[in-house]
Specification:
With 289 residues, this protein is α+β, with helices and mostly antiparallel strands. Helix content is 56%, strand content 11%. It has a five-stranded mixed beta sheet with strand order 3-2-1-4-5, with helices on both faces. The protein is globular.
């Protein structure tokens, strides 16, 4: 059912303060930041100190289908995030009629605590505006580094949970990297390792592979284009002031959201994403029989 403005509920966008990576920052003069957007499809960006994308990685097959023909390098990160979410909407990965949509942002790195936090806030608000403008219900989460097991491990190691998360991320690209070596590695170098790995992965995508993925994308866009167009036509376009009013209302909701509510909503979101992934895998299996 199409949601009119008076009934539009974006859900509560939940933000818990990021445990920013501050360890060994004095050794670093760079301020590159890692930004991941997880909708299933999922994408990772590396962003420089001017908010420009310097590398990206399409994490799964859905992301490859969605963005095989898209060049994010050189884009402002807020523009890149909105483009990714917009493409996901056009291809049906975000359901315009569902109340189960969610986006997870993970932001790591930077040479000051405030840099990652400020960037996290900007991309989150940009996503909120997109959903409001397109009359889409969605919850926006930011990665929570207060899980007890992660916090306890970080405390035992004498580093922040954010630094530990960055080490674990780098390990996902380099299985030879140990926690001990990661602890001694400056944040900027960990981010640089991730950037180099991203570039290598994307450079290995052949033109034939890109063409096949683009064909799948075009089929999805055709399938959902009429539905999206109808959805937008049945809702009166919002003014900038109306969009900001929705964003501000969500912001106020954030301030009153309890940790327990966040944990419950985040768990629900994870279950939904896992179910979607399993359904996708099952469909792929059926198509090969």
């Amino acid at each position: 059912m199409i949601k009119k403005l008076g009934l539009l509920v974006l859900g509560f966008a939940v933000v818990l303060t990021l445990g920013a990576c501050t360890d060994q920052v004095a050794e670093s003069s760079a301020s590159e930041i890692y930004v991941a957007v997880d909708i299933n499809p999922s994408i990772e960006f590396i962003v420089d100190d001017e908010d420009v994308v310097t590398s990206f990685n399409l994490v799964n097959e859905d992301a490859l289908i969605l963005c095989a023909d898209v060049e994010f390098i050189g884009m402002n990160i807020e523009d890149a995030v909105e483009l990714f979410i917009s493409l996901a909407t056009e291809a049906g990965f975000i359901d315009i009629e569902s109340e189960d949509n969610a986006v997870l942002f993970t932001v790591l790195g930077g040479d000051e605590d405030s840099l990652a936090e400020q960037l996290q806030e900007r991309v989150r608000v940009r996503a909120l505006r997109f959903f409001a403008r397109n009359f889409i219900n969605a919850e926006i989460f930011t990665e929570d580094f207060t899980q007890e097991d992660l916090v306890l491990q970080a405390e035992e190691l004498g580093i922040t949970p954010g630094k530990l998360k960055l080490i674990l991320l780098a390990q996902s690209y380099d299985e030879t990297l140990t926690i001990e070596v990661g602890m001694e590695t400056p944040v900027k170098d960990l981010v640089a390792q991730v950037r180099a790995a991203q570039k290598e992965i994307m450079d290995n995508l052949t033109e034939e592979q890109r063409a096949a993925l683009v064909e799948k994308k075009q089929a999805l866009m055709t399938q959902y284009s009429e539905r999206l167009e109808t959805h937008l036509q049945e809702n009166t376009p919002l003014t900038d002031e109306e969009i900001e009013a929705i964003v501000n209302r969500v912001q106020n909701t954030i301030r009153t959201t309890t940790r327990e509510e966040w944990q419950e909503a985040a768990e629900t979101w994870r279950n939904i994403i896992e179910e979607r992934r399993q359904n996708t895998n099952n469909e792929d299996d059926d198509s090969t029989e």
